[in-house]
Amino acid sequence: MYEITTDVLIVGSGPAGSACAALLSTYGVKNLLVNQYRWLANTPRAHITNLRTMEVLRDLGQQVEQEAYLHATNEDLMGGTVFCESLTGEEIGRVPSWGLHPLSRAERQLSSPAKMNDLPQTFMEPLLFKTACARGTEARMSTEYLSHTQTDDGVVTLCRDKLSGEEFTVKSKYLVGADGGNSKVAKDAGLPFEGQMGVRGSMNIWFRADLSEFVAHRPAVLYPIMQPGAEVGGIGMGLIRMVRPWNEWLIVWGYDINEPTPVVDHERATTIARQLVGKPDLEIELLGTSTWTVNNMYATRMQNGKVFCMGDAAHRHPPSGGLGSNTSIQDAFNLSWKLAAVINGQAGEALLDTYTVERAPIAKQIVTRANQSIAEFAPLYSALGIDESNDGAVMQANMHARSQSTEAAEKQRMEIRDALAFKRYELDAHGVEMNQRYRSSAAVTDGEAEPEFKRDRELFYQSTTWPGARLPHAWVFDSRGRQHSTLDLAGHGRFALFTGLGGEAWVDAAAKVGEEFGLKIDVHVVGPRQPHADYTGDWSRVREVSDSGCVLVRPDHHVAWRSVKLSDNPQAELRRVLQHVLSK
Ligand SMILES: Cc1cc2nc3c(=O)[nH]c(=O)nc-3n(C[C@H](O)[C@H](O)[C@H](O)COP(=O)(O)OP(=O)(O)OC[C@H]3O[C@@H](n4cnc5c(N)ncnc54)[C@H](O)[C@@H]3O)c2cc1C
Known about the structure:
The chain contains 19 helices and 25 strands. The chain is an alpha+beta fold. It is globular, with a radius of gyration of 25 Å. About 55% of the residues are buried. Pfam families: FAD_binding_3, Rng_hyd_C.
């Protein structure tokens, strides 16, 4: 048996593993990625790509971000979620989603330099994987993780080359389990989980058919189909999802988890497609079918010693709200810079403990949110009269009753409107996507209490430089008047410090303290005749410190610390803060 040595071994090349590999390679950390299959995602599962994820791709480089947009369906075509009886049948209502509503679009534009888009997993994975390999990742496909053992100085992992059947070991400083919802790494590491797997049954039917005539005039990614039977299992509704406009689709249809798993052959797939599209003679080119279960489970600890889990390995939930791949990539953004800092000797190993402290609450939050989104279909079914009988004809009659000119029908219409509006928590939850605030030793308090959310924290993003929160986005301008997001001036694997006129002493302090820690801290003095100016005043309005104060930002864009004004001894202050943040 032979042995390979690397710094970080990553198991899994899904969105989590490929993002982690791309980030580590960008930061110059040696890593090896293994995947049990010969290639990447073979079905377009995840697709809604939110602003925070695009900020990670943007951090990987303009080329990576631009390639994502090149392959994605853009935000204008995404968001008019159409609830209907079938694509040819009556429309019940629309929910402006993913920033389509002008107010939501404005809030999103104000919050981020990035754009929402729909990028199927079959495009996202190759992009991240290619970036990783081009920058230094060694990738071995058809290679299966078997087991691991932790030693004093690292992890020894047993793998099998599936082509030759030969087993070999990988000796690494750290092991990352990004091996999906059935994670063996998480199991072997003994991570504690809460919740339940397999709460509802679901099937995917992936097909090609030109449906332009039914949809091109009302563009959306999601067409929820409200028919009798749609409430059984699955994600709380029947769904036709656009994969490519308007000729590639994925149907999600539920089954009763207490019944045997259905066989979805060509005939059954065609029958369901015809029923949901509402075209009895529809011909489809079937690309694939699969069955899967809705899960409701999250790890309460995402690491054990030198082993870390991320993505679905740590949080398992339905696709509602499109949070899976997004959260997986964001897990990677949180852990990768910490691994790099520890491996490069800039941080103590205790920094790695902040991974669980910061990300486990988010795992719980998104698993809960996604499952709640399924439950929140109940008022809509109730208003439509779908849940009151097992008799299809009765349900159909209840649904049609809304078109009468009676008081009861008016009440029904109001209930339907309210129930649809409530789906915003699933379809346009800007706050769920962006409001992550970390509380750990890697974010040092400035003594101020955490700002309270002034509006619904799930629906609305609220910017703050409170330590632990994501750095607010504002455009600042270089000497030629070109705009740069504050997020672009931060990140890229480095700490950044923002100050203004009167805060020049931070520049010198950051250089000296950075040198002590072996770090380069990017310092930005923002003000008139400085490398960046705040012509619109937007940065001054969101930074919550004075010109002479500073905001210190971690490589993952989260605020490490801030000072409202210049302190008496900036060098000592920065040293104290970095010692804390980096567990040095
Ligand atoms: C229908 C559907 C729609 C979805 N829509 C969205 C959406 O719009 N937005 C969103 O964010 N999410 C969505 N998701 C969820 C998303 O697909 C997952 O959350 C995401 O794929 C998780 O990424 P991951 O990298 O953690 O795991 P995975 O993508 O599952 O990748 C796991 C990797 O580990 C490898 N692996 C597993 N075991 C081993 C082993 N023993 N040895 C070696 N390799 C191994 C696999 O080969 C694979 O490469 C959707 C899911 C479904 C089913």
